[in-house]
Write a structure and sequence with these properties.
25% helix, alpha+beta, tt1808, chain A, six-stranded mixed beta sheet, two-stranded parallel sheet
Length: 220
Amino acid sequence: MHATAILNPPLAPARRPDPLAELVYPDSDGQPMADNTRQFRYIVMIQGGIAALFAHDPNVFVAGDLLWYPVEGDNTIRAAPDVMVVFGRPPGDRGSYRQWREGGLAPQVVFEVLSPGNTLAEMVRKFQFYDRYGVEEYYIYDPDRGELDGSIRRNGRLESVQRMEGWISPRLSVRFTLLGTDLVLYRPDGRRFETFLELEQRAERLAERLRAMGIDPNDL
């Protein structure tokens, strides 16, 4: 072997960077969770009610306004459902829902609460996204018009639910109804989903009863 080869061994080939490792999946799309207080109130009611329903189930993840990335390697394919439910994944904090890190499971149930700013073209794109990436149940509520629509996956595609009044979600076992223009959801035990304000009022009534019994709620 030549001395020069010993003194100057051949360089190892440079490692090529992993494009997937360098790709950033933002936790925010820069859009607000809601455009107005009414829309926000319904989003919180739906998300909170479903979260409470499955609070003791270690295999149900419920989120509101969380970015969902279904395809690894493409951070432009994404959606942020107002509420999404994933059966088969544990609850807990996430910056975004990256499907390849979640056992490949897509959200099975998705809700959208409309605001005046939602356009027809935007809602068509959302439907196409949820249809393509495996959502099983898709519900849309328009609080301004008092309209409720739903779609369920049949034969591999999302198809319209013909009658939403009294409809029971196959996944959630939650019953839908409209009281006037207001969306009301009922748990399997018949109890109605409560708004955040109603929960606060109920908690205050309970606290008042405890005080009347000589018990300080802060000591519990």
